[in-house]
Design brief:
This protein has 303 residues and is α+β, with helices and mostly antiparallel strands. It has 5 helices and 16 strands. β7 and β8 form a beta hairpin.
Length: 303
C-alpha cells in the first residue's frame, strides 16, 4: 500500500489515503490524480459550490466497482468541514457544504468522484437561485441537443432571462438561469415546465416534456424535474464516473453550436486548458425575478 499523500490547501493540509488507488482503470487515473484535478479547478469550481448542500457520488473501488450516493455527512468527517442540517419528509439530513479547497480535496480522498449540488443555498433552501433545464437526448447523436439548446436560448432571450450552458459529462447539456431567490421551488418548477411546454409546442417533432420514455417517440426530453427541494444537479467542473473521466464543463453560448461538441468533450486531462477564463462570469452575475418573465411567457402563449 502506497504511503498517504499530503496536499497543502490554504491553511490546511489534506491527507489523501491510498493515493495510488486506481479509480479509472482505462485511463490509469488514481485518487491522487483526482485530488490534483480538483485542486487545480477549485478557483473556478468553488464559486459554484459555496453555501450549497451537496450529495456525494462515491466510488471507493473505482468506476467499475460498487458506488453509492451519500447525503448524510459521515461521523468520521473532520469538524472543520462545514455542514447544514435540513428537513426532509421524515426527519433531517446533514449535508456537506464545500466552501473551500480543503473540503474539495477531502471529498476526493473519500472517492467522491462527482459532487452534485442543490440549486438553492443553505440559508434559504426552498428558494433557488438557479433554474436548470436538462436536455436529455434520445440517443447518441448530439445534433438534437445542440439544436434544442439553441432554441431554448432564443426563447429565454425572448423572456429577457440570461442563461448559461454546460456539458454534463454524461449525455446532454444543462441550461442554467440565475434567479433572485424570491420564488419558492414549486413556483420555479411550474415556470420551467411552462417554458419547456411552449418550446416543445414550437418544435413538436423534435422536443417533448413527457417524463415516460415510451411517450417520447424518439424526441429530446426537456427535463425540469430537478427544480425541486432536495434535488441536485451535477456541479460545474465535476468529474463523471464514466470511461475517459469526462467533466461537466461550462461553455460560452457560441460553443454550443460547434458540430464537434458532445457531452463528454472535455476530460480531467483537457479541461484545465479552459481555466484562464470563466464563460459564465457575465451570464450568472445577477439573479432575475420570474414575475416579468412569466408575464412575457403568457404573452407568447405559454403558461
Amino acid at each position: 500500500m502506497s504511503p498517504a499523500l499530503e496536499i497543502p490547501a490554504g491553511r490546511r493540509t489534506v491527507r489523501i489515503n491510498r493515493p495510488d488507488k486506481v479509480l479509472f482503470p482505462g485511463e490509469g487515473i488514481t485518487k491522487a490524480d483526482l485530488a490534483e484535478y480538483y485542486r487545480t479547478v477549485a478557483r473556478r469550481m468553488l464559486p459554484q459550490l459555496r453555501g450549497r448542500p451537496l450529495m456525494m457520488e462515491r466510488h471507493p473501488d473505482g468506476i467499475d466497482g460498487q458506488s453509492f450516493m451519500h447525503k448524510d455527512v459521515p461521523g468520521h468527517f473532520p469538524d472543520w468541514i462545514h455542514r447544514v442540517e435540513l428537513p426532509k419528509e421524515d426527519g433531517t439530513v446533514t449535508y456537506v457544504l464545500c466552501d473551500d479547497t480543503a473540503t474539495l480535496l477531502y471529498l476526493a480522498d473519500q472517492a467522491c468522484i462527482t459532487p452534485h449540488r442543490w440549486l438553492s443555498r443553505a440559508d434559504r433552501p426552498d428558494h433557488p437561485d438557479r433554474l436548470v433545464f436538462d436536455l436529455d437526448p434520445p440517443g447518441d447523436d448530439f445534433t438534437p441537443v445542440r439544436e434544442a439548446a439553441r432554441a431554448l436560448h432564443q426563447l429565454l432571450d425572448e423572456l429577457k432571462l440570461p442563461s448559461a450552458v454546460m456539458t454534463t459529462g454524461s449525455r446532454g447539456l444543462h441550461v442554467v438561469v440565475p434567479l433572485d431567490r424570491r420564488a419558492p421551488f414549486d413556483d420555479v418548477r411550474d415556470f420551467a415546465r411552462d417554458v419547456a411546454e411552449l418550446l416543445a409546442a414550437r418544435h413538436p417533432d423534435a422536443l417533448t416534456t413527457a417524463p415516460r420514455k415510451q411517450a417520447r417517440r424518439g424526441r429530446l426530453y426537456l427535463d425540469v424535474q430537478r427544480n425541486a427541494y432536495g434535488q441536485t444537479t451535477v456541479a460545474p467542473y465535476a468529474v463523471r464516473a464514466r470511461p475517459g473521466a469526462p467533466v461537466a464543463t461550462p461553455l460560452a453560448w457560441p460553443e454550443a453550436d460547434d458540430p464537434d461538441l458532445d457531452a463528454g468533450r472535455w476530460t480531467v486531462k483537457t479541461v484545465t486548458d479552459r481555466l484562464d477564463s470563466d464563460p459564465w462570469q457575465d451570464a450568472l452575475r445577477r439573479g432575475r425575478s420570474l414575475g416579468p418573465a412569466r408575464r412575457r411567457l403568457a404573452a407568447l402563449g405559454g403558461g
